[in-house]
Structures are given as C-alpha cells and as structure tokens.
Amino acid sequence: MKFLPVVLLCVFVSSIAFGQDRPNIVFLLADDAGYADFGFQGSKTMITPNLDRLVARGVRFTQGYVSHPTCGPSRAGILTGKYPHRFGYEENNVPGYMSPVSAVDGEEMGLPVEEQTMGDYLQALGYRTAYFGKWHQGGADRFHPLNRGFDEFYGFRGGARDYFSYENMPTDPQNRLERGIGNFAEHDGYLTDVLGDETAEFIERNKDRPFFALLAFNAVHSPMDARPEDVERFPGLAGHRQKVAAMTLALDRACGVVLDKLEHLGLTENTIIVFTNDNGGPTDNNASSNYPLSGTKSTYLEGGIRVPFVMSWPRQLRAEQVYEQPVSALDLLPTFVLAGGGVVSSLSHLDGVNLVPYLNGANQSRPHERLFWKRGVRAAVRDGDWKLIRYADRPAELFYLPDDISERNDLAIAEPERVRELFKVLFAWEMGLSRPRWLLDTKYDRLDMERQDIYRDQSKFFTRERSADGKQ
C-alpha cells in the first residue's frame, strides 16, 4: 500500500479529529501573473476587486516566494512541500524547453509517484479533495490527479491550452479538457469562467464536510485569449498588455465566484483561502509587469521567484495584516495539513513550515533563515536579507534586498568573504539533492554549459529593465 506509515498516521488522527470543526481549504493558483498586476499589489491598471477584498480580510505577504521560476517544478514544490530538486525535478517538463530535450520521455516526465501531494495528506485526513485546471505534473495516467490524492478532477494534464473550446480536438490528450480520467469533452464559454463555476459547484456539493479545492488557473499564461467584452474594459491599453489585463479581470471574476459561494454558504469564517502565483511574469510573452522587481519567469532575480501571496482564515488570522518576512509556497502543505488535523511528526521531512504561528504572533522569528533555488549550474540562495545568484557563464552576483529590491547594486566585489561563505552554503545544500532525472542519460552531462550560448542570445532573460509598461 502506497505511503502506508504516513497515511495510517493521518487516518488515525483523522478518526479523532473528524468530528471537530476543521477548516475547509481553497487554494487559488494563478499562472504566469506579474508581481505588480493586481490592485492589492498597487496596480492602477488591473481591475481585481474580488482578490482585493480577499486581502482586506486576510494577510498579504510582501516577500512570498516559489521554489522554482518555471511552472512544472514550482508546482511540484507546492504540491509536495519539498524543494523539487530533492526528487530530481528541476526542469520544466515540456519537451524542447530551452534545450534539446528537457523531458526525455515526454508525458512520462512527471511528479514522481513516490512523492506525497497535498491531496494525499488531506484525503487521508478525511477531506474531500478536488483539482481544477492546469495539472502539468505528467501526462501518463499514473501521474493523474485522481491517482495523486484527489477525488475529483476537471482540467487538463499539460501546461497550456486555448481558453476557448477547440473546434478540432488536439491530438495530444494533455491539451484536451478532461473530467475524471479519460472523459474528454470541450467546454462552453471561456475556460477561466468555467473553472470558477466548477469549483463553486464542488463547494456546494461538499458544504457539509471538510473539503480541499485546488483551483489551478491557466490564466494568465499564453495563448493570449480574452473575451471581447473584457478587452473593451481597457481602451487605454493595446496588444498583449490589453489582453493580459482582460485575462486578469476574468481571473479575478472567477475567484469572485468561488468567494461568493463560500459567503453564501456561510463558510468563509472557517475556510483557509490562499491566492498566489506559480512563478514570476514572463514579460516578453504576456506583457505582465513585475515592477519594481528585476527579471522575469525563468530567472533567479526577484521578478522570477517572488510572487503575489495572500492568505485568509478569519477564524484564526487577523484581517488586514501585512507580513514582511520571507515565506515560501513550500509552506502551504504543512500549513494546510496541520490545520486539518495532521501531526507535526508526519511532516518532519518537508522543507516548508506551518505559517499560522508566525501570523498569529506565537512565533516571532523568521519562517526561513535561508531559501534556495537551482536549475543546472545556475542557482541562488537567500541568507537572511542577502541573496547570491550563481551563474554558469559569468561571476556571481550579490544583493542586499532591503536596500535594493530591484537588484541593481551588485555587491559581490565589495563583499568577497560573504560571497565565498554563501557559495559554501549553496554547495552544502546541493549535496543533499537528487540528480535531475532527465539528466540520467550521460549524453546531457555538459548541456547546461553548452546552452549558455542560448542564454546569451536571449538576453531578455537577464534584463534589468522594468517589465511591460515600466510602471504599475
């Protein structure tokens, strides 16, 4: 039986706690959104009233991070509460992505089946679990959400698809909309709206028992599809910037449908609601804005790894909080599981921490003294307020973030001893990681060095320019 020791422990705890008033959990995950592209982040361009009201009754994190600057590994970290590098998943599982091959076996490259997910933990605790939207953790059936701890699934297995129904069904099943396993059928309307409606219906059906709903939007990832009536709300914008504003409006509207359902059913007070994003905005692809952060998706500058991050739980957390210490999306799994009746000992192998004690004042220290990122030779470490970025093709960079959120003042030359020490810290962390699974074929041993030519040609990945329109 898979995961026997932890599952039995969780079931035992569940049998004690099932009758208790445990919180419901709703996790809203955006895709490729810009750090600055929400009203609660200060944007004067985007229209996000529903997410703004979520912030007003919860906690806004100013330093929320993900464990990887691209979709697949970041989501693997979120789902497991572990750095994805620990199980060899440090590349996006899209064939041909930035290299000759990033997933040597196509749909067979997914979240390793021996890893437990949020769904596994919460399902074992008696929660009804559901996953809606973008999966991107492997296309083969053994990787499917219904085999990874989720009772229900409505979405698609791959990393991107159209927002409107396909007239001609894609031959790749990963891009086709699916209910359960193998029940492929296209939707009516605009997919972002449909996913919000499906999540609200799940909440309605399960209002009398603890539930966990993970709504993983593909918005605002390309292709840049938007409803014409949403585009018309932004006459002062043009091109992809206008489209991403319209897509963000739809994202917020779908979140509003879910929030309204919780309020209508009287469930808001004891529901943990989280909203965040999987990585920084790819400003060149969808005109998102990460201002005032430098960098974009795929980089280890703040614009690639720092994301909007919100949590609401009115019964436990004070409203209108701004939390300014660094936190990670790795923290969500332990936060959810412990709130749901799990025990600390079942989570000791994770890299995330339970955020609740830090948010209610019981623990005044930082949730994390150090955070790490890695993709091949390129890597980064945040140690306190210092951050080192290591490159394969040029000297490392060092930044002191409280004085330099935009990472424009490289202090590596001025702080050589700190650079040496952080290299040692990074090396020590790497010693505990697994070799990337797609690199087990030795012919790729030198790939990271060889593809630096690609990185140099694509200098936009290392831009220090303000993203999109240069302002919020």
Q: What does this protein look like?
A:
There is one protein chain. The protein has 472 residues and is an alpha/beta fold. The protein has two domains: 4-369, Alkaline Phosphatase, subunit A; 371-442, Arylsulfatase, C-terminal domain. It has helices at 4-17, 49-56, 71-80, 118-124, 191-205, 228-231, 239-264, 283-286, 302-305, 332-339, 356-359, 416-430, 447-450, 452-457; strands at residues 24-30, 59-61, 64-65, 128-134, 152-156, 178-179, 183-184, 211-216, 271-277, 306-307, 309-312, 321-323, 327-328, 370-375, 378-383, 386-390, 397-400. Helix 1 (4-17) packs across helix 4 (118-124), helix 2 packs across helix 7 (239-264) and helix 5 (191-205) packs parallel to helix 7. It starts with a helix and ends in a 15-residue tail after the last helix. 51% of the residues are buried. Residues 1-19, 97-102 and 451-472 have low confidence and may be disordered.
